[in-house]
UniProtKB/TrEMBL annotation, chain A:
Annotated SMART domains: AAA
Residue ranges occupied by any ABC transporter domain in the UniProt entry: 13-248
Tree of life domain: Bacteria
UniProt organism field: Gluconobacter kondonii
SUPFAM superfamilies: P-loop containing nucleoside triphosphate hydrolases
Keywords: Amino-acid transport, ATP-binding, Cell membrane, Membrane, Nucleotide-binding, Translocase, Transport
Name of this protein: ABC transporter domain-containing protein
Automatic annotation (TrEMBL), chain B:
Ranges for domain ABC transmembrane type-1: 13-207
Keywords: Cell membrane, Membrane, Transmembrane, Transmembrane helix, Transport
Compartments in which it is found: Cell membrane
Membrane topology value: Multi-pass membrane protein
UniProt protein name: Metal ABC transporter permease
Pfam families: BPD_transp_1
UniProt keyword annotation of Signal present: no
Species in which this protein is naturally found: Gluconobacter kondonii
Segments crossing the lipid bilayer: 20-40, 52-76, 82-105, 142-168, 188-210
Length: 267, 219
């Protein structure tokens, strides 16, 4: 059977039969899903479910024990080191802990993303300014990460990730270290990036609220398996099938109630 | 102080500074790459080729285990081969560098190891080559610590250079031996010690200031 050219061009990412074993245990077991260009997919699961491991597989940072990952139709497992490095540059990464260089300013940190791509020095300045404008950090160019708030640090991280015009942005708990206000602003920024630049986004979180606000679709990961793959629309209509998905939703409600001032009973 | 005596001290101090800074420069030139290799070849490191790391580690530790005074003597043929002579200030740079390289390498390694593995992993995942990670992440992020390490190395070199006076290295150590020890000139000896102390304190103050300046932007 042959895929149509159109379907392939529209497919950003395809994962088939992916398994990853750590010390004799499946960290990921028979994972399969695909992501369309321009889609925002949320990946939710409890701690240790395998979310970060899955994201590392998508980036070619882990060797797979079975299955394969296709990014823009390219099978990561067959790429040579050099080709893999080049492909990684097409993928933006955003981290929970920001991972900024303390030794560099805001502009310097964004520059790192461009240096990795091999952008010549005289072209970097212009692009840095564009990126600073894009993430709303004007006036902070010469500050060091230690002088920034969490939300600002994450903006630098996002700008750096976008340096090479990536087609795919992978965010590992990008908002987990942030307060609610900064979370809202970062989610808005990610949405802008998706809408205006057409960047496909895969976003790990353990908060259903983040997914509801941003994602078009959610994958629920439990003990290394995808137990639910559902659109945000169906999710909002309460059509989640798996108990874990529903527990994430109800936990969110509990948190809402706590936030609204209802004391949680018991503990 | 008598003019001629002043001249003697001035020349000796210059000779000491020459020995100390030249060997420190060589120590950084060879010791830093060594420290980088020791760091990245560790398990889970950027380039975990264990045999290389182990071999370098053994060489470094063996060199460090030899007392300086013995190294001075053992290295005489080598020094003669490299410099054409085993005497004088320039010749002393050879044994001083040989002790300072592994010394600085081990100190620098400690600073390099403190750079967050998560950060290194992240930059690597962004598509950076290993060389890029070493040059743009590992060394710059460890720089304040590396400067402190260099300061410690300089201080150690000041005292080692004085010891090198024993084998005719020139400099302040030579003055102390020739006048203070062999001619029982206690005043001379005290002057030498005072200058060494002042040099050490100056190096320490400048080193600390530079390191603190670099550390300012680090959390
Ligand atoms: N390098 C590794 N070596 C051995 N085991 C690993 C390694 N990386 C992850 N694991 C294991 O794989 C499982 C999944 O880990 P992973 O970090 O992907 O979870 P996660 O869903 O991201 O969790 P969290 O929400 O806490 O970040 C865990 O049991 C973890 O201990
Ligand atoms: Mg994780």
């Amino acid at each position: 059977m042959q895929n149509t050219g159109v379907a392939e061009a529209n497919e950003m990412l395809k994962v088939e039969g992916l398994s990853k074993i750590f010390n004799g245990h499946y960290a990921l077991e028979n994972i399969g899903f695909s992501v369309h260009r321009g889609e925002i997919v949320g990946l939710i699961g409890r701690s240790g479910a395998g979310k970060t491991t899955l994201l590392r597989c998508l980036n070619g940072a882990e060797n797979l024990d079975s299955g394969h990952v296709l990014v823009e139709g390219k099978n990561l497992s067959v790429l040579k080191e050099r080709e893999l490095l080049a492909l990684r540059q097409r993928i933006g990464l955003v981290f929970q802990g920001f991972n900024l260089l303390q030794s560099r300013t805001v502009a310097g940190n964004i520059s790192l993303g461009l240096e990795i791509l091999g952008v010549p020095k005289k072209e970097r300045q212009q692009r840095i300014q564009e990126l600073i404008h894009l993430v709303g950090l004007e006036g902070h160019e010469t500050k060091y990460p230690s002088q920034l708030s969490g939300g600002q640090k994450q903006r630098v991280g996002i700008a750096r990730a976008l340096a090479g015009h990536p087609a795919l942005l992978l965010c590992d708990e990008a908002t987990s270290a942030l307060d609610p206000e900064a979370t809202t602003s970062i989610l808005a920024l990610l949405e802008t990036i998706n809408k205006e630049l057409g960047v496909t986004i895969i976003l790990i979180t353990h908060e259903m609220d983040v997914i509801r606000r941003l994602a078009h679709r959610v994958l629920v990961l439990d003990q290394g398996r995808i137990v639910e793959d559902i659109s945000n629309e169906l999710l909002n209509r309460g059509e989640a099938k798996h108990a874990l998905t529903r527990s994430f939703i109800s936990r969110e409600n509990v948190e809402d109630m706590e936030a609204a001032g209802y004391a949680s009973s018991g503990f | 102080m008598h003019h001629q005596v002043f001249d003697l001290f001035f020349k000796a101090t210059l000779a000491t500074l020459e020995m100390v800074f030249a060997s420190a420069a060589i120590a950084v030139l060879f010791g830093l790459p060594l420290a980088v290799l020791l760091t990245i070849t560790r398990p889970g490191g950027l380039w975990p080729v264990r045999p290389i790391g182990r071999l370098l580690g053994i060489v470094v530790d063996l060199t460090r285990a030899v007392p300086f005074i013995i190294l001075l003597v053992v290295l005489i043929p080598f020094t003669r081969f490299v410099m054409g002579t085993a005497l004088g200030t320039a010749a002393a740079i050879v044994p001083l560098s040989i002790t300072a390289i592994p010394y600085f390498a081990r100190i620098a390694e400690v600073s390099l190891r403190e750079v967050s593995p998560e950060l290194i992993d992240a930059v690597r995942a962004m598509g950076a080559t290993r060389t890029k990670v070493v040059r743009s992440v590992l060394i710059p992020e460890a720089l304040p610590g590396l400067v402190s390490g260099l300061t410690v190395t300089l201080v150690t070199l000041i005292s080692a250079s004085a010891m090198a006076g024993v084998v005719g290295a020139g400099g302040l150590g030579d003055l102390a031996i020739r006048y203070g020890y062999q001619r029982f000139n206690t005043v001379m000896m005290l002057w030498v010690v005072s200058i060494l102390v002042v040099l050490t304190i100056l190096v320490q103050i400048v080193g600390n200031a530079v390191s603190a300046r670099l550390r300012k932007n680090f959390t």
